[in-house]
Specification:
The protein has 135 residues and is mostly helical. Helix content is 43%, strand content 0%. The protein contains 5 helices and no strands.
Length: 135
């Protein structure tokens, strides 16, 4: 969350996320309208001090940024993962697993999907032999 390695010397950085959903919590204003309330709340929580000067601020709307956990999720997940499993497609990460994951968890999920795909793959030498037999 805080880093001195990607900002000017003597400063730090912090990122905040505010979630919206067309279904549950629609965005009713411009994303930029949330900058000041977020800064105010960061100060209220003690994450930044009153005397801290915010050098840069930006708001972005990422339409498909987070997995929504609702009452329909379990059935939807069973359907989607079942279909992908039937096709032999390895899924991974935040969107493939439909899970709220940190970067390291997403990386591990990718490794597991790669291992699954490699285990199911035809060995290269066998693949060459089969290809040669067809010609």
């Amino acid at each position: 969350m805080f880093s001195g390695n990607n900002v000017p010397k003597g400063t730090g950085s912090i990122q905040a996320e505010v979630y919206f959903s067309n279904k549950y919590k629609p965005l009713t204003c411009a994303p930029e309208d949330w900058i000041e309330p977020v800064i105010r709340d960061l100060r209220r929580m003690g994450l930044i001090r009153e005397e801290d000067h915010v050098v840069f601020r930006s708001a972005r709307l990422l339409k498909y940024a987070n997995i929504i956990f609702d009452l329909e999720r379990a059935d939807a997940l069973k359907t989607v993962h079942g279909y992908l499993d039937d096709l032999g497609i390895a899924y991974c990460g935040r969107y493939g697993d439909w899970g709220y994951m940190w970067t390291d968890e997403s990386f591990k999920s990718g490794e597991q999907a790669a291992e699954k795909a490699l285990a199911a793959a035809v060995p290269f030498s066998q693949e060459r032999r089969v290809a040669g037999e067809r010609s």
